[in-house]
Amino acid sequence: PMLQLVARCTGTRRASSLGCRRRALCSKPPDSAPPSKVAAGLAGLAGGGLGSLVGIGGGAVMVPLMTAYARMSQHQAVGTSSAAVAGVGLSGMASFGSAGAVDLLASAALASTAMLTARFGARFTGKFNPVQLQRAFAAFQLAVAPMVPLKGALVRSSKQSPGDGVGGGGGGGGGSEAAAPPPSSTALSPERQRELLQLAAVGAAAGFASGMFGIGGGVVITPALCLLTDMPHTCVLGTTLASMVPPSLVSAATHAQMGNVVAAAVAPLLAGSAIGAFATAQLALQMPEEPLQWGFALFLVAMGGHKLYSLRGRV
């Protein structure tokens, strides 16, 4: 019995030591450098600037930049970027709203369901390892990339015959006519009610994507607004940015509870993203629709393709 007891204790020690080694291999070493605040601020500036220009929250830019240069894990970058996406949305909404290019009723329809699903998306990240999460996000980007320019081309070709042109076609800039959102009177037409219900369903999908990938959901909302509504593209951008604020806050709070938010990086990330978003939103208001639509598509193809290529052979 004494020999059995000694053998059992020795086996327990070995198992405990093996478990500690495995945990050490799977986690960051305790003496690793802390996340870089400067790199986080620059990632926010790039994400907010490009995100506001093409109608996304900027998480698609910030997450890979923070994992590459700010010394964050994939889960930390996703969680921290959720807070910055809210800043991008607020800053972009203020900039586009100053030109009347925000449909508040459509934003409310999108955000109402997105807030409900963002929490589930954030919790769903725990079911994927970082490589799987990055690969799923890259595939998602490639899938939605062609939707916006395809819709724009179809709209421009259809308007050549009737010639009424809401939104000014491919050459229309960011003038007052192009920026004017659809009417949102208290007496909603049946078509408007149906449109808002469709946008609520889109918001549910966008909220889940926002929580899962640390993005604002713009890669879902921007194509959906182009496909389901007759909004001019500047109004699509403003409405998208406005709708992503509530679900991004819910997602950030959930990630914070899960320990995925790097608190020291939040302030520089927010500052950089807000500055970038406001500046490029003003630029987008002066640009024609077609370059903005193609810019959205090419940006997603470049980001998604590069990420899939960098992950080849990894599991």
Describe this entry's structure for a reader.
- The chain is mainly alpha-helical and 315 residues long.
- It has 14 helices and no strands.
- The protein has helices at 2-26, 37-54, 59-69, 74-97, 104-124, 130-144, 147-159, 176-179, 190-213, 218-228, 233-243, 245-257, 263-284, 289-310.
- The longest helix has 25 residues, at 2-26.
- The termini are far apart.
List keywords for this structure.
74% helix; 315 residues
Blueprint of the fold:
Blueprint: H1 2-26, H2 37-54, H3 59-69, H4 74-97, H5 104-124, H6 130-144, H7 147-159, H8 176-179, H9 190-213, H10 218-228, H11 233-243, H12 245-257, H13 263-284, H14 289-310
Concise account of the structure shown:
By secondary structure, the protein is mostly helical. 74% of the residues lie in helices and 0% in strands. It has 14 helices and no strands.
- The radius of gyration computed from the alpha-carbon positions, rounded to a whole number of angstroms, is 22 Å
The class by helix and strand makeup works out as: mainly alpha
* Number of helices, where a helix is a run of at least 4 consecutive DSSP H or I residues: 14
Beta percentage is under 5%
